[in-house]
Amino acid sequence: MLDSLYHRLEQKEDDLIALTQGLIRFPTINPPGEAYGPCARFIGERLEKRGFAVQYIHAHGTPGDNDSYPRINIIARYEGKTPGPCIHFNSHIDVVEVGSGWTKDPFAGEIEDGKIYGRGACDMKGGLAASIIAAEAFIEQFPDFPGAIEISGTCDEESGGYGGVAYLAEQGFFAKDRVDHVIIPEPLNKDRICLGHRGVWWAEIETHGHIAHGSMPFLGDCAIRHMGAVMDQFEEKLFPALAQKRTDMPVVPEGARQSTLNINSIHGGQSEDFEGLPAPCVPDSCRMVIDRRFLIEEKLDEVKGEVKDLLKSLEQDRASFSYTLKDLFEVQPTMTDKHQPVVKAVSKGIEDILGKEADYVISPGTYDQKHIDRIGQLKDCIAYGPGILDLAHQPDEYVGIADMLDSAKVMAQSIHSLLQGSKDNAKS
């Protein structure tokens, strides 16, 4: 029975390639959010022809949404012949900027040595294409299946997902009375199941000073020097403490199994958006953005408290030191239990198709599972898809055709297990 499903998928290889190329050719760069509407309609028109009911959802008022760059999402649903659970495949359609160093056209979908090249090929239009082909093949092979299959193409994952999955979850599209199982085809390697991700806290620290003439800095108070004191405290106290925090979460790569902090940016003094020489001034402001990634064993209040305590200590011990601390973004860690139905179904698929046990991992960075978990309160959710994680956001990004086909087989078998399995269980 499943061999016929695999054979059907193999016959769709050319379609899988063409679909992936078609998706890559939409330059859905975020920011600012280009070509979302045309890409969503490309997906919707295909699925509508194959019997899916299609909805286009405009995430009005979300960050970045405007008349020039509307946040357009697509959700397509195929109802089975009888009631049953719903499996949802969610992929983001946005890609990051191209950057330099490419030897291929980033939006041509060129094929070479069994690989399709392009920005978003790996992250994650190859996974989106694989999920579409998997769903179509399953529907053709098992037209009387129970339940429902949903496929979504959503916005803004690369910038937090607020115009995409977060908005849809708030509107009830990931409610438990509508969806039972979610697979997000992020590029985690075809033999891995990603159970969740670390937590994140972004914040802005601003140190304050007093402006004065640069030839008489003693009459002012340099905010950048105050920020230097903050960095000294980070180096002496915070970074060594974070290196000692370890997790039992199977985070990849190995270096991410500890707590980390990245100094994302520092801006002090005069802006640089001018020509010529700067004016001689003592800077009265310096701003630092920090990106703190934390573990499931840590509490967010404790994570914030480590930074706050260092700043309060400087306020007490350093003359004229003053600061403001502003929260920018926070997400709790999440990890799906290995015994959830979607985990077991995909694990069995990997074992059957690839002939090896699935490797369970946790992502070092967050992705849209955070919104499905936090807003939708849906726990049966994982990331699984083709592509090599290290290629994401790199020049000459690619996805392997054989990897996409293998992943499509795993996805199709997982649909069979979760939907046909529910039918078999109902009979018994």
Structure, described:
Helices cover 35% and strands 23% of the residues. The chain has 428 residues and is α/β, with parallel strands linked by helices. It has two domains: 2-197 and 334-427, 3-Layer(aba) Sandwich (Aminopeptidase); 199-331, Alpha-Beta Plaits (2-Layer Sandwich), CATH 3.30.70.360. A six-stranded mixed beta sheet has the order 1-2-6-3-7-15. A hairpin with a 2-residue loop joins β4 (111-112) and β5. α1 packs antiparallel against α10 and α6 (223-243) packs across α7. The longest helix is centred in the last third of the chain and has 27 residues, at 401-427. The mean pLDDT is 96.
Helices and strands, with pairings:
Layout (H helix, E strand, L loop, with lengths): L1 H10 L1 H12 L11 H14 L3 E6 L13 E8 L2 E11 L18 E2 L2 E3 L3 H21 L4 E9 L10 H6 L10 E4 L7 E6 L1 E10 L14 H21 L16 E9 L16 E10 L5 H18 L5 E9 L2 E2 L5 H14 L4 E5 L5 H6 L6 E3 L14 E3 H27 L1
Parallel strand pairs: 3-6, 3-7, 7-15, 8-14
Antiparallel strand pairs: 1-2, 2-6, 4-5, 5-16, 8-13, 9-11, 9-12, 10-11
Structural class: alpha/beta
Order of helices and strands: HHHEEEEEHEHEEEHEEHEEHEHEEH
Count helical runs: 10
General shape: elongated
Q: How much helical structure, as a percent, in the residues?
A: 25-40%
- Number of structural domains: 2
What's the CATH topology label of the largest domain? Aminopeptidase
Number of E-type strands? 16
Q: Uncertain spans, ≥5 residues at pLDDT below 50?
A: none
CATH C-level label of the largest domain: Alpha Beta
β-strand amount: 15-25%
Biggest beta-sheet profile = 6 strands, mixed
Based on CA atoms alone, the radius of gyration comes out at 24 Å
Strand order, biggest sheet?
Answer: 1-2-6-3-7-15
Straight-line distance between termini = 20 Å
Q: Considering the protein shown, what is the CATH homologous superfamily of the largest domain?
A: Zn peptidases
The average pLDDT score comes to: 96
Tell me which CATH architecture of the largest domain applies here. Answer: 3-Layer(aba) Sandwich
